[in-house]
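Meet the record:
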Amino acid sequence: MCNMNKRIYLVLAIGLISFSVQAQEVFSLKDCIEKGLERNYSIRIIRNEQQISENNAIPGNAGYLPTFDLSGGFNGTIYDTTNELRDGETSKTTGVHSETANVGVNMNWTIFDGFGIQATYERLKELERMGELNTRMTIEDFVAQLSAEYFNLIRQNTRLNNLRASLELSRERLRIVEQSYYIGSMSRLDLQQAQVDFNADSSNVLNQLEMVHRTRISLNELMALDNVEDQIQIRDTAIYPNSFLDEVDIWRNTLAANSSLLLAQKNKTLSELDYKKAKSRNYPYVRLNAGYGYTANWYEVGTTELQKRLGLNYGVSVGFTLFDGLNRKREQRNARLQIENKNLQTQELELALRADLSTLWMAYKNNLGLWALEKENVVVAQEYYNVAIDRYRLRELSGIELREAQNKLLDAEERRSIAEYNTKLCEISLLQLSGQIVSYFTSNPERVSD
Protein backbone atom coordinates (compact mmCIF):
# COMPACT_ATOMS: atom_id res chain seq x y z
CA MET A 1 0.00 0.00 0.00
CA CYS A 2 2.82 2.38 0.82
CA ASN A 3 4.53 1.60 -2.50
CA MET A 4 1.36 2.43 -4.38
CA ASN A 5 1.11 5.68 -2.48
CA LYS A 6 4.68 6.58 -3.38
CA ARG A 7 4.18 5.72 -7.04
CA ILE A 8 1.10 7.90 -7.36
CA TYR A 9 2.79 10.77 -5.62
CA LEU A 10 5.83 10.40 -7.86
CA VAL A 11 3.63 10.59 -10.99
CA LEU A 12 2.04 13.76 -9.70
CA ALA A 13 5.40 15.26 -8.85
CA ILE A 14 6.72 14.54 -12.34
CA GLY A 15 3.62 16.11 -13.86
CA LEU A 16 3.98 19.24 -11.77
CA ILE A 17 7.69 19.55 -12.58
CA SER A 18 7.05 19.22 -16.29
CA PHE A 19 4.59 22.09 -16.14
CA SER A 20 6.95 24.37 -14.24
CA VAL A 21 10.17 23.61 -16.12
CA GLN A 22 8.65 24.40 -19.50
CA ALA A 23 7.48 27.86 -18.45
CA GLN A 24 8.98 30.42 -20.76
CA GLU A 25 7.35 33.80 -20.29
CA VAL A 26 5.07 35.55 -17.80
CA PHE A 27 2.10 37.42 -19.30
CA SER A 28 -0.19 39.96 -17.71
CA LEU A 29 -3.66 40.49 -19.14
CA LYS A 30 -2.46 43.64 -20.90
CA ASP A 31 0.47 41.69 -22.40
CA CYS A 32 -1.91 39.05 -23.73
CA ILE A 33 -4.21 41.66 -25.26
CA GLU A 34 -1.36 43.55 -26.91
CA LYS A 35 0.14 40.33 -28.26
CA GLY A 36 -3.24 39.22 -29.58
CA LEU A 37 -4.06 42.58 -31.19
CA GLU A 38 -0.76 42.34 -33.04
CA ARG A 39 -0.92 38.69 -34.12
CA ASN A 40 -4.51 37.40 -34.06
CA TYR A 41 -5.58 36.41 -37.56
CA SER A 42 -9.15 37.71 -37.32
CA ILE A 43 -7.86 41.12 -36.25
CA ARG A 44 -5.39 41.24 -39.11
CA ILE A 45 -8.06 40.23 -41.63
CA ILE A 46 -10.57 42.85 -40.47
CA ARG A 47 -7.87 45.54 -40.55
CA ASN A 48 -7.13 44.66 -44.18
CA GLU A 49 -10.83 44.92 -44.96
CA GLN A 50 -10.89 48.32 -43.28
CA GLN A 51 -7.98 49.40 -45.46
CA ILE A 52 -9.95 48.32 -48.54
CA SER A 53 -12.88 50.53 -47.54
CA GLU A 54 -10.45 53.42 -46.96
CA ASN A 55 -8.90 52.88 -50.38
CA ASN A 56 -12.35 52.97 -51.99
CA ALA A 57 -13.37 56.26 -50.36
CA ILE A 58 -11.79 58.58 -52.94
CA PRO A 59 -13.43 61.21 -55.21
CA GLY A 60 -12.44 59.37 -58.38
CA ASN A 61 -14.33 56.24 -57.29
CA ALA A 62 -17.46 58.35 -56.79
CA GLY A 63 -17.27 59.92 -60.28
CA TYR A 64 -16.09 63.39 -59.30
CA LEU A 65 -13.07 63.33 -61.62
CA PRO A 66 -12.85 63.03 -65.42
CA THR A 67 -11.47 60.00 -67.18
CA PHE A 68 -8.70 60.21 -69.78
CA ASP A 69 -8.06 57.51 -72.35
CA LEU A 70 -5.07 57.25 -74.65
CA SER A 71 -5.83 55.26 -77.77
CA GLY A 72 -4.16 54.54 -81.04
CA GLY A 73 -4.72 52.35 -84.03
CA PHE A 74 -3.74 51.38 -87.52
CA ASN A 75 -5.84 49.78 -90.26
CA GLY A 76 -5.67 49.31 -93.97
CA THR A 77 -7.85 48.16 -96.89
CA ILE A 78 -7.21 46.52 -100.25
CA TYR A 79 -10.12 46.58 -102.67
CA ASP A 80 -11.17 46.56 -106.31
CA THR A 81 -13.47 49.25 -107.76
CA THR A 82 -15.66 49.23 -110.83
CA ASN A 83 -17.19 52.50 -112.09
CA GLU A 84 -19.91 52.52 -114.78
CA LEU A 85 -20.10 55.94 -116.40
CA ARG A 86 -23.20 57.54 -117.98
CA ASP A 87 -21.68 57.35 -121.47
CA GLY A 88 -21.57 53.58 -121.14
CA GLU A 89 -17.90 53.22 -120.44
CA THR A 90 -16.63 51.16 -117.55
CA SER A 91 -13.46 51.75 -115.55
CA LYS A 92 -11.87 49.23 -113.25
CA THR A 93 -9.22 49.58 -110.59
CA THR A 94 -7.81 46.58 -108.81
CA GLY A 95 -5.67 46.21 -105.72
CA VAL A 96 -6.34 49.67 -104.37
CA HIS A 97 -4.52 49.94 -101.05
CA SER A 98 -5.32 52.60 -98.42
CA GLU A 99 -4.10 52.92 -94.83
CA THR A 100 -5.13 54.91 -91.77
CA ALA A 101 -3.24 55.54 -88.51
CA ASN A 102 -4.49 57.51 -85.51
CA VAL A 103 -3.47 58.33 -81.98
CA GLY A 104 -5.22 60.57 -79.48
CA VAL A 105 -6.28 61.44 -75.96
CA ASN A 106 -9.98 61.50 -75.04
CA MET A 107 -11.64 62.91 -71.94
CA ASN A 108 -15.10 62.19 -70.55
CA TRP A 109 -16.45 64.03 -67.53
CA THR A 110 -19.88 64.01 -65.93
CA ILE A 111 -20.31 67.57 -64.67
CA PHE A 112 -23.72 67.08 -63.08
CA ASP A 113 -25.99 64.09 -62.56
CA GLY A 114 -28.56 65.41 -60.11
CA PHE A 115 -26.27 65.22 -57.03
CA GLY A 116 -25.80 61.49 -57.52
CA ILE A 117 -22.01 61.83 -57.50
CA GLN A 118 -22.13 63.65 -54.17
CA ALA A 119 -24.37 60.96 -52.71
CA THR A 120 -22.05 58.23 -53.95
CA TYR A 121 -19.01 59.93 -52.42
CA GLU A 122 -20.78 60.41 -49.09
CA ARG A 123 -21.75 56.74 -49.20
CA LEU A 124 -18.14 55.69 -49.72
CA LYS A 125 -17.08 57.81 -46.75
CA GLU A 126 -19.80 56.19 -44.62
CA LEU A 127 -18.59 52.75 -45.69
CA GLU A 128 -15.10 53.82 -44.63
CA ARG A 129 -16.44 54.76 -41.19
CA MET A 130 -18.33 51.47 -41.04
CA GLY A 131 -15.05 49.68 -41.78
CA GLU A 132 -13.57 51.39 -38.74
CA LEU A 133 -16.57 50.35 -36.64
CA ASN A 134 -16.37 46.76 -37.87
CA THR A 135 -12.71 46.69 -36.87
CA ARG A 136 -13.56 48.15 -33.49
CA MET A 137 -16.34 45.59 -32.96
CA THR A 138 -14.01 42.72 -33.87
CA ILE A 139 -11.37 44.07 -31.48
CA GLU A 140 -13.95 44.40 -28.69
CA ASP A 141 -15.15 40.84 -29.26
CA PHE A 142 -11.55 39.66 -29.22
CA VAL A 143 -10.65 41.53 -26.02
CA ALA A 144 -13.77 40.15 -24.32
CA GLN A 145 -13.01 36.60 -25.44
CA LEU A 146 -9.34 36.78 -24.52
CA SER A 147 -10.06 38.40 -21.14
CA ALA A 148 -12.59 35.69 -20.34
CA GLU A 149 -10.06 33.00 -21.28
CA TYR A 150 -7.36 34.71 -19.21
CA PHE A 151 -9.61 34.75 -16.15
CA ASN A 152 -10.66 31.19 -16.90
CA LEU A 153 -7.01 30.16 -16.74
CA ILE A 154 -6.74 31.90 -13.35
CA ARG A 155 -9.84 30.00 -12.20
CA GLN A 156 -8.51 26.67 -13.46
CA ASN A 157 -5.16 27.31 -11.74
CA THR A 158 -7.03 28.18 -8.55
CA ARG A 159 -8.99 24.96 -8.79
CA LEU A 160 -5.78 23.06 -9.40
CA ASN A 161 -4.26 24.59 -6.27
CA ASN A 162 -7.37 23.71 -4.28
CA LEU A 163 -7.25 20.13 -5.52
CA ARG A 164 -3.55 19.93 -4.68
CA ALA A 165 -4.31 21.22 -1.19
CA SER A 166 -7.07 18.64 -0.86
CA LEU A 167 -4.63 15.98 -2.03
CA GLU A 168 -2.18 17.05 0.66
CA LEU A 169 -4.95 16.73 3.24
CA SER A 170 -5.72 13.23 1.98
CA ARG A 171 -2.04 12.37 2.06
CA GLU A 172 -1.81 13.55 5.68
CA ARG A 173 -4.86 11.52 6.58
CA LEU A 174 -3.38 8.46 4.84
CA ARG A 175 -0.15 8.93 6.79
CA ILE A 176 -2.05 9.06 10.07
CA VAL A 177 -4.07 5.96 9.20
CA GLU A 178 -0.97 4.02 8.11
CA GLN A 179 0.81 4.77 11.37
CA SER A 180 -2.27 3.86 13.39
CA TYR A 181 -2.85 0.71 11.36
CA TYR A 182 0.67 -0.62 11.91
CA ILE A 183 0.39 -0.12 15.65
CA GLY A 184 -3.03 -1.77 15.61
CA SER A 185 -5.23 1.20 16.59
CA MET A 186 -7.06 1.37 13.24
CA SER A 187 -8.56 -1.29 11.02
CA ARG A 188 -7.60 -2.29 7.52
CA LEU A 189 -10.95 -0.90 6.36
CA ASP A 190 -9.90 2.55 7.60
CA LEU A 191 -6.65 2.22 5.67
CA GLN A 192 -8.41 1.15 2.48
CA GLN A 193 -10.90 3.96 2.77
CA ALA A 194 -8.09 6.53 3.20
CA GLN A 195 -6.24 5.03 0.23
CA VAL A 196 -9.33 5.17 -1.98
CA ASP A 197 -9.91 8.83 -1.11
CA PHE A 198 -6.25 9.63 -1.75
CA ASN A 199 -6.40 7.91 -5.14
CA ALA A 200 -9.58 9.81 -6.04
CA ASP A 201 -7.94 13.13 -5.16
CA SER A 202 -4.86 12.14 -7.17
CA SER A 203 -7.09 11.46 -10.17
CA ASN A 204 -8.78 14.84 -9.75
CA VAL A 205 -5.42 16.60 -9.78
CA LEU A 206 -4.31 14.81 -12.94
CA ASN A 207 -7.58 15.66 -14.69
CA GLN A 208 -7.28 19.28 -13.62
CA LEU A 209 -3.74 19.46 -15.00
CA GLU A 210 -5.23 18.53 -18.36
CA MET A 211 -7.89 21.23 -17.99
CA VAL A 212 -5.27 23.88 -17.19
CA HIS A 213 -3.27 22.81 -20.22
CA ARG A 214 -6.34 22.96 -22.46
CA THR A 215 -7.22 26.47 -21.24
CA ARG A 216 -3.66 27.64 -21.75
CA ILE A 217 -3.73 26.29 -25.32
CA SER A 218 -6.93 28.26 -26.00
CA LEU A 219 -5.26 31.42 -24.70
CA ASN A 220 -2.19 30.77 -26.89
CA GLU A 221 -4.44 30.25 -29.91
CA LEU A 222 -6.18 33.58 -29.34
CA MET A 223 -2.78 35.29 -29.19
CA ALA A 224 -1.72 33.37 -32.36
CA LEU A 225 1.60 32.34 -30.83
CA ASP A 226 4.01 30.61 -33.19
CA ASN A 227 4.04 27.58 -30.89
CA VAL A 228 0.52 27.08 -29.60
CA GLU A 229 1.85 24.63 -26.99
CA ASP A 230 4.09 27.21 -25.29
CA GLN A 231 3.73 26.78 -21.53
CA ILE A 232 3.23 30.47 -20.86
CA GLN A 233 2.63 31.62 -17.31
CA ILE A 234 0.21 34.38 -16.37
CA ARG A 235 1.08 37.02 -13.83
CA ASP A 236 -2.17 37.04 -11.88
CA THR A 237 -3.12 34.29 -9.46
CA ALA A 238 -6.53 35.51 -8.31
CA ILE A 239 -9.61 37.21 -9.72
CA TYR A 240 -10.79 40.46 -8.15
CA PRO A 241 -14.15 41.57 -9.57
CA ASN A 242 -14.84 45.28 -9.82
CA SER A 243 -17.76 45.99 -7.52
CA PHE A 244 -18.03 49.70 -8.40
CA LEU A 245 -19.72 49.63 -11.80
CA ASP A 246 -22.68 51.99 -12.17
CA GLU A 247 -25.74 50.96 -14.18
CA VAL A 248 -26.67 54.52 -15.19
CA ASP A 249 -23.17 55.23 -16.51
CA ILE A 250 -23.08 51.94 -18.39
CA TRP A 251 -26.40 52.66 -20.13
CA ARG A 252 -25.35 56.21 -21.01
CA ASN A 253 -22.10 54.90 -22.51
CA THR A 254 -24.03 52.15 -24.32
CA LEU A 255 -26.20 54.68 -26.12
CA ALA A 256 -23.14 56.74 -27.02
CA ALA A 257 -20.51 54.12 -27.84
CA ASN A 258 -21.99 50.66 -28.39
CA SER A 259 -20.50 49.37 -31.66
CA SER A 260 -23.63 47.53 -32.81
CA LEU A 261 -25.78 50.60 -32.21
CA LEU A 262 -23.33 52.86 -34.05
CA LEU A 263 -23.31 50.44 -36.99
CA ALA A 264 -27.11 50.45 -37.06
CA GLN A 265 -27.06 54.23 -37.20
CA LYS A 266 -24.57 54.08 -40.06
CA ASN A 267 -26.84 51.67 -41.93
CA LYS A 268 -29.66 54.18 -41.56
CA THR A 269 -27.40 56.90 -42.99
CA LEU A 270 -26.57 54.64 -45.94
CA SER A 271 -30.28 54.19 -46.62
CA GLU A 272 -30.74 57.97 -46.60
CA LEU A 273 -27.91 58.32 -49.12
CA ASP A 274 -29.47 55.61 -51.29
CA TYR A 275 -32.66 57.67 -51.32
CA LYS A 276 -30.66 60.76 -52.27
CA LYS A 277 -29.06 58.77 -55.08
CA ALA A 278 -32.47 57.63 -56.32
CA LYS A 279 -33.75 61.23 -56.30
CA SER A 280 -30.80 62.31 -58.47
CA ARG A 281 -32.55 60.71 -61.45
CA ASN A 282 -35.19 63.47 -61.25
CA TYR A 283 -32.61 65.92 -62.58
CA PRO A 284 -30.93 66.28 -65.96
CA TYR A 285 -27.34 65.27 -66.53
CA VAL A 286 -24.52 67.27 -68.10
CA ARG A 287 -21.50 65.55 -69.61
CA LEU A 288 -18.39 67.03 -71.17
CA ASN A 289 -16.19 65.26 -73.68
CA ALA A 290 -13.03 66.35 -75.46
CA GLY A 291 -10.20 64.83 -77.43
CA TYR A 292 -6.94 65.71 -79.03
CA GLY A 293 -5.41 63.48 -81.66
CA TYR A 294 -3.52 62.87 -84.83
CA THR A 295 -4.78 60.97 -87.88
CA ALA A 296 -2.95 60.03 -91.12
CA ASN A 297 -4.53 58.53 -94.27
CA TRP A 298 -2.58 57.08 -97.20
CA TYR A 299 -4.28 56.68 -100.61
CA GLU A 300 -3.12 54.92 -103.78
CA VAL A 301 -5.68 56.58 -106.02
CA GLY A 302 -6.89 60.12 -106.39
CA THR A 303 -5.04 63.35 -106.24
CA THR A 304 -4.15 63.05 -102.58
CA GLU A 305 -1.47 60.65 -101.52
CA LEU A 306 -1.30 61.47 -97.77
CA GLN A 307 -3.76 63.34 -95.60
CA LYS A 308 -2.82 64.40 -92.03
CA ARG A 309 -5.08 65.79 -89.33
CA LEU A 310 -4.03 67.10 -85.91
CA GLY A 311 -6.47 68.86 -83.65
CA LEU A 312 -8.98 69.14 -80.86
CA ASN A 313 -12.55 67.92 -80.68
CA TYR A 314 -14.98 68.76 -77.89
CA GLY A 315 -18.60 68.61 -77.00
CA VAL A 316 -21.23 68.89 -74.29
CA SER A 317 -24.23 66.62 -73.91
CA VAL A 318 -27.29 67.37 -71.82
CA GLY A 319 -29.96 64.80 -71.19
CA PHE A 320 -33.03 64.04 -69.14
CA THR A 321 -34.97 60.84 -68.75
CA LEU A 322 -38.56 61.64 -69.65
CA PHE A 323 -40.06 58.24 -68.86
CA ASP A 324 -38.51 55.01 -67.58
CA GLY A 325 -41.54 52.89 -66.86
CA LEU A 326 -42.13 54.53 -63.45
CA ASN A 327 -38.95 52.92 -62.11
CA ARG A 328 -37.73 56.18 -60.56
CA LYS A 329 -40.83 56.47 -58.38
CA ARG A 330 -40.59 52.79 -57.45
CA GLU A 331 -36.93 53.11 -56.41
CA GLN A 332 -37.65 56.23 -54.35
CA ARG A 333 -40.61 54.62 -52.56
CA ASN A 334 -38.51 51.59 -51.73
CA ALA A 335 -35.65 53.79 -50.52
CA ARG A 336 -38.01 55.62 -48.14
CA LEU A 337 -39.25 52.29 -46.81
CA GLN A 338 -35.64 51.19 -46.26
CA ILE A 339 -35.02 54.33 -44.19
CA GLU A 340 -38.07 53.51 -42.08
CA ASN A 341 -36.89 49.92 -41.65
CA LYS A 342 -33.41 51.02 -40.56
CA ASN A 343 -34.97 53.38 -38.04
CA LEU A 344 -37.13 50.56 -36.67
CA GLN A 345 -34.14 48.22 -36.52
CA THR A 346 -32.20 50.84 -34.55
CA GLN A 347 -35.04 51.18 -32.07
CA GLU A 348 -35.30 47.39 -31.82
CA LEU A 349 -31.58 47.16 -31.14
CA GLU A 350 -31.81 49.80 -28.41
CA LEU A 351 -34.56 47.77 -26.76
CA ALA A 352 -32.50 44.58 -27.01
CA LEU A 353 -29.48 46.35 -25.51
CA ARG A 354 -31.61 47.63 -22.65
CA ALA A 355 -32.85 44.09 -22.01
CA ASP A 356 -29.29 42.72 -22.15
CA LEU A 357 -28.13 45.36 -19.71
CA SER A 358 -30.94 44.57 -17.29
CA THR A 359 -30.17 40.84 -17.44
CA LEU A 360 -26.42 41.29 -17.11
CA TRP A 361 -26.77 43.81 -14.30
CA MET A 362 -28.97 41.46 -12.30
CA ALA A 363 -26.47 38.64 -12.82
CA TYR A 364 -23.59 40.97 -11.90
CA LYS A 365 -25.16 42.10 -8.62
CA ASN A 366 -26.28 38.57 -7.77
CA ASN A 367 -22.80 37.13 -8.34
CA LEU A 368 -21.25 39.93 -6.29
CA GLY A 369 -23.49 38.85 -3.41
CA LEU A 370 -22.60 35.19 -3.95
CA TRP A 371 -18.91 36.08 -4.02
CA ALA A 372 -19.14 37.85 -0.65
CA LEU A 373 -21.12 34.95 0.81
CA GLU A 374 -18.76 32.25 -0.47
CA LYS A 375 -15.72 34.07 0.91
CA GLU A 376 -17.30 33.77 4.34
CA ASN A 377 -18.17 30.13 3.69
CA VAL A 378 -14.53 29.33 2.89
CA VAL A 379 -13.45 30.75 6.26
CA VAL A 380 -16.11 28.74 8.08
CA ALA A 381 -15.31 25.56 6.13
CA GLN A 382 -11.59 25.97 6.88
CA GLU A 383 -12.28 26.33 10.60
CA TYR A 384 -14.63 23.35 10.48
CA TYR A 385 -11.96 21.20 8.84
CA ASN A 386 -9.30 22.29 11.34
CA VAL A 387 -11.55 21.13 14.18
CA ALA A 388 -12.34 17.91 12.31
CA ILE A 389 -8.68 16.96 11.70
CA ASP A 390 -7.83 17.61 15.35
CA ARG A 391 -10.68 15.39 16.49
CA TYR A 392 -9.64 12.78 13.92
CA ARG A 393 -6.13 12.67 15.38
CA LEU A 394 -7.71 12.11 18.79
CA ARG A 395 -9.85 9.28 17.35
CA GLU A 396 -13.02 11.25 18.10
CA LEU A 397 -14.05 11.46 14.44
CA SER A 398 -14.41 8.78 11.78
CA GLY A 399 -12.68 8.83 8.42
CA ILE A 400 -16.00 9.34 6.65
CA GLU A 401 -16.77 12.41 8.76
CA LEU A 402 -13.29 13.83 8.13
CA ARG A 403 -13.76 13.23 4.40
CA GLU A 404 -17.05 15.10 4.53
CA ALA A 405 -15.35 18.07 6.19
CA GLN A 406 -12.61 17.97 3.57
CA ASN A 407 -15.16 17.91 0.74
CA LYS A 408 -17.06 20.82 2.28
CA LEU A 409 -13.88 22.87 2.30
CA LEU A 410 -13.12 21.98 -1.31
CA ASP A 411 -16.71 22.72 -2.37
CA ALA A 412 -16.66 26.10 -0.61
CA GLU A 413 -13.43 27.07 -2.35
CA GLU A 414 -14.84 25.93 -5.70
CA ARG A 415 -18.05 27.94 -5.21
CA ARG A 416 -16.04 31.02 -4.32
CA SER A 417 -13.89 30.57 -7.43
CA ILE A 418 -16.96 30.15 -9.64
CA ALA A 419 -18.62 33.25 -8.11
CA GLU A 420 -15.47 35.29 -8.75
CA TYR A 421 -15.24 34.09 -12.34
CA ASN A 422 -18.94 34.57 -13.10
CA THR A 423 -18.85 38.08 -11.65
CA LYS A 424 -15.87 38.90 -13.85
CA LEU A 425 -17.66 37.53 -16.92
CA CYS A 426 -20.64 39.79 -16.17
CA GLU A 427 -18.25 42.70 -15.74
CA ILE A 428 -16.63 41.95 -19.11
CA SER A 429 -20.03 41.73 -20.82
CA LEU A 430 -21.20 45.01 -19.29
CA LEU A 431 -18.02 46.77 -20.37
CA GLN A 432 -18.33 45.36 -23.88
CA LEU A 433 -21.97 46.43 -24.03
CA SER A 434 -21.01 50.01 -23.13
CA GLY A 435 -18.09 50.13 -25.57
CA GLN A 436 -15.51 50.57 -22.79
CA ILE A 437 -13.86 47.18 -22.69
CA VAL A 438 -10.76 47.97 -24.77
CA SER A 439 -9.85 51.15 -22.89
CA TYR A 440 -10.67 49.53 -19.55
CA PHE A 441 -8.31 46.58 -19.90
CA THR A 442 -5.55 48.26 -21.94
CA SER A 443 -5.21 51.71 -20.37
CA ASN A 444 -4.31 50.37 -16.91
CA PRO A 445 -2.30 47.15 -16.50
CA GLU A 446 -3.72 46.69 -12.98
CA ARG A 447 -7.36 46.48 -14.07
CA VAL A 448 -7.35 42.74 -13.53
CA SER A 449 -7.07 43.26 -9.80
CA ASP A 450 -9.47 46.18 -9.34
Summary: Strands lie at 26-27, 67-84, 90-112, 233-234, 285-298, 306-319. Confidence is low (pLDDT under 50) at residues 17-23. Residues 265 and 441 are 27 Å apart (CA to CA). The longest strand covers residues 90-112.
